Each structure stands twice: as C-alpha cells, then as structure tokens.
Amino acid sequence: MAVNRERVPADAPARRPADVLIAADKFKGSLTAVEVADHVAAGLRRVVPGLRVESLPVADGGDGTVDAAVAAGFQRRTARVTGPLGEPVTAGYALRGRTAVVEMAEASGLRLLPQGVFAPLTASTYGTGELLRAVLDAGARTIVLGVGGSATTDGGAGMLTALGARLLDAGGDPVAPGGAALAALATADFGGLDPRLAETTVVLASDVDNPLRGPKGAPAVYGPQKGATPADVATLDVALGSYVHVLGAALGPAAAEAAESPGAGAAGGIGYGAMVGLGAVFRPGVEVMFELLGFADALARADFVITGEGSLDEQTLHGKAPAGVAQAARARGVDVVAVCGRLALPPAALTAAGISRAYPLTDLEPDPVRCIAEAAPLLSRTAERIARDFLAG
Description:
It holds the Pfam family Gly_kinase. Helix content is 37%, strand content 19%.
C-alpha cells in the first residue's frame, strides 16, 4: 500500500530551528553551572550544528550564586576574610554598579572546613560580616545575601560582631565565637553598627523558610549536616534562645518575634541575624536571582528550555532553581526537560513541576563514583540524546 506523503510547496519557508535556553544550576561536587551549560550546548550542537543556544547559569542563593551572577555580567571581586574556624580565606563576591551579590558560603561555608572536620558549636559567621563590610567599601548599597551551605549555627552573631555590634557576657567581655557561646550572652549593643547599613537595602535570598529554633529550626534540621550530635543540637537551641532574649531586650519585641519568621533559620540562623541586625528582607532565592540574571527576558527568547542540577529529588520541588525555571517556562507554554546526575522523582512529580522529561547521567553510568568523576562527557552525551529526541529534524 502506498504511503501518502504531504507535498511541501517549493516556496514554503524553511522551519526555523528552536532557540534553546540552558538554565541549569550546578552539579554539586562535579560541575559548576557554567560548565553544565557549556557541556550541554556542546552536545546539542554535535547533533544539530548551528543550533541557537543561550546559556544562563542559575542559582537559588546557595553555593554557586556568585558564579551565576558573574556569568550574567557582574564583576567578580575578592576580599580576605576570616573563615569559619578563624583561619584567613579569600572570599568572592559579585558587583555591578551599586548592587552586590554575596554568598555567605564563600566566607563561612562548610566547604571551607578541612576534610572530615566539623565545628557545629564554635564555627562563626564573622567572615561573612567582613565580606559585607568589603562590599560596602566597594560602594554597594543594594546587597543580595545568598545563604546556604554554611558551617555555622551562630544565628549570624559573628556577622553582626564584624559589622560593629557588641555581644557581651555578664562580665562585659565579648562572647566567644560560635553558637554554643551564645548561652553566656548577657547584653547586646548595636550602637557601633556600621552606619552605612542604614542606607543599604539587604535582601536575604534563601531556599529555606525554617524558623530559628524548635523542631523545624536551624539546629534541629541542619545541625546534623554540620556534625552536630543530638546533645549539640540541644545546646545550640538553648543558646540561640538566650540570643533571641538578649536581642529582644536590646532592640525591642520585634527582634524576638523575628525568630519565628520564615527564613530566620536559614544557614544556621544567619537569616535571623540579617533580619534583626541588618534590616534584611527575606525573599525566595530563586525569585531574587532570576530578577538579577534577567531570566524573564531570556525565557521570552526561548522555544525550548533545558534545566537541571546534580540531584533531582524532593528538595528540588521546594524552592530550588530547576523548579523555578520549569514553573516560569510552563506559564509561558515553553517545553522543559531536565538534566541531572541522579533522579529521585517519579514521572508524576516531574510532570506536576512542569518538566516533560528528565535525563539522569546514571542512565549512562550507573556507578555513582564514576558518574561524578565523568560528569562532563556524560552530560555532553546526554545532551545529544535530548537533541535527537526534541530538536533534530
């Protein structure tokens, strides 16, 4: 039986190739967001030469936020600050005009600790305060403070001290660094706080909305990730309670009430310190970063979107960058697929999130150690599959 083939008029315009937007987060432990975009683009173009691809690395306020801002046109700057254990470290931030993007993990992050070393009771955010001071020195008067990946649970006390606050024990001496030492806090004096903060807008960008204390607070939920034992969690929760009481006495009832606010427990409670001491306004990190990166304009130019991160799992659905990308693309009727190292979401959850299909690297290399080590070539091969499935022909 003959097959009926539709005749295409000779003067019919050629089909325009899709404009592809790659808006993926980092693959933690293997590839930055910039590297993810580069390898995906290379794989796509091996199948569809000349494909128009726009890369916009994205972040949610945690690790990789500064890199994403730099990729979008911000200038990278560095400052020498105090690390979470008191050692000097070089921390980066991003600056464009009078707007700065600060990633607290650059100064106070878990990744700065020696391998296998944790300090849940004594790690300090002092270096983050020094980094903010450097940003103010550079002329910034709008600061996006991205939080996540912290080694600390000190409620932002170290940060506030570095910016001029005085946190004293009953003898009038400064309390020691770290969250546990806040149990000895007796008085707080904010009279010496850097006056430039009064004319600065600080946005707390985070993908978590935990309160400071309690069963959903910073010590209980995130303390174990930083090496805290159950006894340490109890110690930190009590110490942060003293901190809230003293700051409430110094700054008024609103300071105590802020401990229950969404985001107060972000990054070991630095969210609380930023809200109370710096007047920071909490906003979802994805929302803030999308505005800074110009995501809406990039999406408007796209016919097809590729997003992703190292692990697509339940956490992805709660404020992570790929979920934000997919939600925005779905609202515009643009198809979205995701790349990932590991997939831990069922098809129904992906569909509900607005992701048509996910491509885990483990489909090509089931061994997780090799998958992480060989993420770059695996990602390019995965992008070739996406091109054949959605873009070729």
